[in-house]
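Moderator note: this is an archived Q&A kept for reference. The question asked for a predicted structure of one protein chain; the sequence and the answer are reproduced below.
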Amino acid sequence: MITSLSIKNYALIEKLAIDFSKGFSIITGETGAGKSIILGAIGLVLGKRADLTSLKNKEEKCVIEAQFDISKYDLKEFFTANDLDYEDETIIRREILPSGKSRAFINDSPVNLQELQDLSLFLIDIHSQQQTQELSDENVQFKIIDAIAVNFETIANYQQVLKTYRSAKSKLNELQKKQADAGKEQEYNTFLLNELVSAKLKSGEQPELETEYEKLNNVEIIKESLDKSLAIANEEQYGVFHNLNEIKNALQKIATFSPDYENVFQRISSITIEFDDVSKELQNISEKLLNDPEQLQLVSQKLQLIYNLQKKHQVNSVDELIQIQADLGNVLLELDGMDEEIGILEKEIEQKTDELDKLAAVIHEKRIKAIPVLSDQLIAILSTLGMPNVRFNMELLPSETYFQNGKEELQFLFSANKGTDFGLLKKVASGGEMSRIMLAVKAILAKYSKLPTLIFDEIDTGVSGEIAIRMGEIMKEMSSSMQIFAITHLPQIAAKGDSHFRVSKSSVGNDTVSELKLLSQDERVTEIAQMLSGANISDSALNHAKELLN
């Protein structure tokens, strides 16, 4: 339960520190006095998002700190799982800086908002008027039934299986679509692959083929040029080789006369040797050169095939064609493997479907047993709240859809009076009836919940008189097992509290501030009398207030 709350620089509150006790606490105050500010501060401690509008003084940080006694609520496992220091008296602090950034701490350890929100689920339930309207929502109605049915562990297991099932279904759908798309292109891809495979492409062969083609295609002119070159080189009287030898012999005679002559002689000797080698190479090339029309045709055909494939696939090299061939092979191989993968997924989905159906059946059976229990308890409580003829008819409608909480839908039907037909709760219940039904629901759930603290924010909307007295008594009964706060405008409910806080707003200079004060017994009498008669308190109002408190 929450044992204390301190607020600094938040909204209209400059500084506030208040202690809370167990049991039933009342919070009253005029409209606009700041009751929503107190709830807002508690909401920040529980992990709601904040902004700079929360700061009273925009130059200073806002600090909200709440202390909770959690010794009886088995939360050590949560603290261990989140690597937090456990304390029976746990302190949660929220800071909002002038820069707009916020920080959160649990027992002085920094935490993120998600961790704060997760812990808050075990600490406080703030019931607002909006929640009363949510009673019409099917998911909320299911949660009420499942709380009575003690279904949450089964539903958690169901949701875990459902997550796996949906993941497998998603993969299967994606794979089947991919297979269908690939199937349309399979024939064409197979043709392309076979075309590339039959081409027997080799890396680096294109330049070699182009060179060979040039040689074969120009064999006559090459032969003519080689023969002419050999004739010029080797002609007996005027050939280049003959003349080089003549020069070399002439220089040899004078080589010993000077280093310069020796140098020139050596150079001409080298040239002679090199030229002789070139001449022999030309002779060798000439002898190997053949006019081969068939080979020329083969080379021409292979090159034309490569050029056609490059044009078709919009690439410039054989290596790129080889890569395309590999990619096409992988695509077709992947397509072949899809059938096996699809088969595995279909078996997994079948298995998960069976598990889901079994868990959904368990959830359904527990709900069937819980519905009359919930209905009877609601009728018993509501009959004391001025609804003696109320009836409920909760119908579970089977479905083939796997919802987050089972495999069925719910019709929560309601009739407030004799002779009236059942109708959907959200359509036929008035605001006052919804408030009373929600209080009854909360009173029932309190028996099944270990939640330490419940705050009712004006749950008394639309009721008065004896009904308000009974609502106060129900909240008082609930406070025997949990800490209850009620923000109310009704004196009948305010008088039932074990402690009473008043929120007030006042002007200090040019500033407006809100305060929260614990009232003494005499102050409670005055506050309740004022709630009965307004600002001008009459003697009868005071006497009535005393009677209510007694």
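Archived answer notes: Residues 1-123+451-519 form a domain with the Rossmann fold fold (CATH 3.40.50.300).
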